[in-house]
Specification:
Strand order of the largest sheet: 3-6-7-8-9-10-11-15-16-19
Order of helices and strands: HEEHEEHEEEEEEEEEEEEEEE
Structural class: mainly beta
Radius of gyration: 25 Å
Strand content: over 45%
Number of helices: 3
Mean pLDDT: 89
Number of strands: 19
Distance between the termini: 84 Å
Largest sheet: 10 strands, antiparallel, barrel
Helix content: 10-25%
Shape: elongated
């Protein structure tokens, strides 16, 4: 009797292993890797996300003596995209869920260096919002004052960002095993996609201090190295496609800041990034810009 039970248990275990092996073989993996043109809808979407993370200067590079520190926190608004703007997958034919976080935040620190230089470090913590979060998202910058004459000043910076963000973009959790009418691409589970948000750039800022407020205007240029690693289970296929793009775009800001006291400073600015996109294969190229209101609260250490 015991032997018979063992045989039955062994056969069930063997059957389970064979079924699992068959399911694993049935689930094929596809990789449609592609280097995208600068005007593709997918490139525009990646650029829109990256542009919302730009570490702008919020005015003139401060005059910090060597060793003096400041700490600040930035918060930028990310405007919601319309339905047509979110149709970016597969060369503009697939709807993607891009409206996740309404804001982007960053903690940053600046320190004075010899020669009038100021170094900055920015970091976005991996806080999860709507199933998306930053991953090792760091930014650095190096700036210097070039000209000062009374109330007028001009500064320049170089900057760079490295890191990524992850989330269920191509297959949102809400679509997992949903009816075909709302799930035309057959998403079986929430995807785990990752977008690389690497870029470097330069900018120049002109500042004017007519009284209690410091006014500024900035113009800059960015070269981005963007990518999306797809990881989505659709029907019985796991999509592991890798998309990459290296677009360039200009940007500009207008803003003002005000000293609340000897240590605290509050700043605000509007960021404008004119991003180009070609929605239809034979259609016109047009500008669909990111316009973002940003706030900064800064503290000066003694």
């Amino acid at each position: 009797m015991l032997l018979t039970r063992r045989k039955i248990h062994g056969r069930l275990l063997l059957s389970g292993l064979l079924a699992a092996s068959a399911a694993a073989h049935a689930q094929s993996v596809i990789r449609n890797d592609e280097s995208l043109g600068s005007n593709r809808p997918e490139t525009w979407a990646m650029s829109y996300v990256a542009a919302s993370t730009l570490m702008t200067g919020f005015g003139l590079t401060p005059a910090l003596p060597p060793g003096q520190w400041t700490a600040s926190f930035d918060l930028g608004h990310i405007p919601r995209l319309g339905e047509s703007q979110q149709r970016v997958g597969f060369a503009g034919t697939k709807q993607e869920d891009l409206n996740r976080s309404p804001v982007f935040g960053r903690a940053r620190f600046a320190v004075g260096l010899p020669g009038g230089l100021v170094a900055e470090l920015g970091y976005t913590p991996p806080t999860e919002i709507s199933n998306t979060s930053a991953r090792n998202l760091f930014s650095v910058a190096l700036g210097r004052r070039l000209y000062e004459n009374g109330r007028l000043g001009i500064t320049a910076r170089i900057f760079r960002q490295h890191g990524s963000a992850s989330g269920d973009i191509t297959c949102p959790a809400a679509l997992a095993d949903a009816p075909a009418a709302s799930n035309p691409y057959g998403c079986r589970a929430a995807s785990n996609d990752r977008i690389g948000l690497r870029y470097y750039g330069v900018d120049a800022t002109a500042g004017w201090n007519p009284g209690e407020w410091n006014l500024h205007a900035t113009a800059g240029m960015v070269r981005a190295d963007l990518s999306v690693q797809v990881d989505a289970l659709t029907v019985d296929v796991r999509d592991r496609s890798y998309l990459s793009a290296r677009p360039s775009w200009p940007f500009a800001t207008l803003g003002a800041s005000h000293d609340l006291d000897a240590r605290w400073n509050l700043g605000a600015e509007v960021l404008y990034v004119p991003l180009r996109v070609q929605r239809e294969l034979s259609g016109p190229r047009r500008t669909e810009a990111l316009t973002s209101l940003r706030l900064r609260l800064l503290y000066r250490f003694s």
